[in-house]
Amino acid sequence: xxxxxxxxxxxxxxxxxxxxxxxxxxxxxxxxxxxxxxxxxxxxxxxxxxxxxxxxxxxxxxxxxxxxxxxxxxxxxxxxxxxxxxxxxxxxxxxxxxxxxxxxxxxxxxxxxxxxxxxxxxxxxxxxxxxxxxxxxxxxxxxxxxxxxxxxxxxxxxxxx
Length: 161
Description:
Elements: E1 5-10, H1 16-24, E2 32-39, E3 43-44, E4 47-48, E5 51-56, H2 60-75, E6 78-86, E7 88-90, E8 95-103, H3 106-122, E9 126-132, E10 135-138, H4 143-150
Parallel strand pairs: 1-6
Antiparallel strand pairs: 2-8, 3-4, 5-7, 5-9, 6-8, 9-10
Helix pairs in contact: 2-3, 3-4
């Protein structure tokens, strides 16, 4: 059975509730939907920020996200997945990324959403620039994010948990 999968990279805002509804509309096999929305914070540590600017490698970014969605659907019994990532200038309080996973049971939906977000945070070809105090700087990768993503390579980190 082919499950519905949506991967979009877009400049414009998205509606998380509408995206989740589209994934489940008319379905009675879905018992759990997990949505994660990443939101632009108004500070980076103690430093207030004016905005984030996200850049990506068109074509490559979609392919990489689709590859990890395929891995998630092979690891967990998912019934649908939506991943939307924005690019461009994003102000504090605006949505950046959405991951929606649907399954018959909550465990798979939660694990797959977490897996996808760990990937998006560490491996997706996006670059983030912070605008603060009149200056701009590129955000470096964080070791804690890499550690979180590495746990999915450990034996037993799949649907059999």
